Amino acid sequence: MWIYIPYNSNSMKRKIEEYKRALILRGKGKSIKQIARILGVSVSIVSVWCRGVRLTDKQIENLKRRKIRIRHLRKLARQSHLEKVKRVQKLFQIAKAEVGPLSDREIFLTGLALYWAEGFKSLKEARLGFCNSDPAMIKFIIRWLKKGLKVKQEDFILRTEFNLSHKDREEEIKIYWSKITGVPLTQFEKPFYHQSNWLREYPSRDNYFGVLRIRVRKSSELLNKMRGWISGLAVI
Fold this sequence. Notes:
Blueprint: H1 12-27, H2 32-39, H3 43-49, H4 57-99, H5 104-118, E1 129-132, H6 135-147, E2 156-163, H7 170-181, E3 192-194, E4 211-216, H8 220-234
Parallel strand pairs: 2-3
Antiparallel strand pairs: 1-4, 2-4
Helix pairs in contact: 1-2, 2-3, 5-6
């Protein structure tokens, strides 16, 4: 019987052993996919190796039953996944409805809590500042600064910060954040490039937009008030 064993002086012995094990496993009634998984080789190679092995009627029947059982389990898994998705979607909608419309005071306190978490507030700071990569949070903070703290559009100074490997997308990234914030490109400073190794994997290179740093001109008094507001939250 002809068998296919890729020739390599360093691996020939191992391939022969794998071939022998494949024949033994097939003789015990294992499926081609099972054998491939056990040996760590491709299904096509196992299929060629085991071409001449004859299975008993009982073994053939067992493999058919196993195939039907696997299909059934996969169907149950898909149904379970769909049910889970529906549950998550339902919980999402219920939770969203529970928040409901926010009053001006609730919006103010929400923005204050976000600034407490992500804003620039050390004693070395002289202006309001905020930095984040979440576009929804950035959009909220911009609106909050305008509506809650009466910051004027022309007083925003923005700077993009991203990995150096995306330097070729500099303009694209600036335009992205300009659309998110509604702040014109003329109010963007020169980008800051990070040269560190990646800490996060992105599904697509085009989905990466780094982080945005927001500064507010002549906001030292607001920053002092911000420290007081945060102190008010901290007593809870």
